[in-house]
Amino acid sequence: MSERFWAKVAHAGPDDCWFWCGSRSSNKYGNFTVEGKTKQAHVVAYELTYGPVPEGKEVCHSCDVELCCNPAHLWAGTHKQNMQDMMAKNRRKNQPRGEQNKAAVLNAWAVRLIRYFYGLGFKSEFLGLVFGVSGSTVRRIMAGETWQHVA
Predict the structure, then answer these.
(1) What is the DSSP string of 28-72?
(2) For the domain bounded by 2-88, which CATH number is listed?
């Protein structure tokens, strides 16, 4: 398994990123199947080098490159530590919320109307057509996944 894994990694210098060349998931991380279970490639690289990921920890990148599998760039930390590292490196891209986001199709008034008409029994696909968005966008609004800041 180790040889099969490392054959899919483009090795470079000890301080350089070693890029995963195998399959990738939609979230930009590499994928590798171990005993029928898909794992993120950087996690497998960590485990092959350092052993199992400690309980309550996740594998983090010091280089911030999702496809990097260089064990020297990987460390185990809590999710909180990973988020603090992200903030310290100014990697978080704070997207404006709601209509402040230039890509927004809806505004707060439209979201309120969607909620109102959905509550009356209108289907998400119909409301999506009326408001120029997809039915899944309407469902995400109703589930509280988006536009939470609009009362």
Answers:
(1) S-BEEEETTEEEEHHHHHHHHHH-SPPTT-EEEESS--TTB--GG
(2) 3.90.75.20
What ranges make up the beta strands (E) of the chain? 9-10, 19-20, 31-34, 37-40, 58-61, 74-77
Q: Determine which helix (DSSP H) or strand (DSSP E) holds 123, and give its type and residue range.
A: none
Give CA–CA dist 126/53, Å, rounded: 47
pLDDT tens per residue across span 112-139: 999 999 999 999 999 999 999 999 999 9
Helix, strand, coil in percent for the chain, rounding step 5: 40, 15, 45
Q: Which of 28, 15, 13, 67 is nearest to 45 (CA)?
A: 67
> For 43-83, how does the pLDDT look when each residue is reduced to its tens digit (9 = 90+)?
999 999 999 999 999 999 999 888 999 999 999 999 989 88
What residue spans in the chain does CATH classification 3.90.75.20 cover?
A: 2-88
pLDDT of 92 over the 70 cut: no
Q: Residue range 24-49: average pLDDT? A: 90
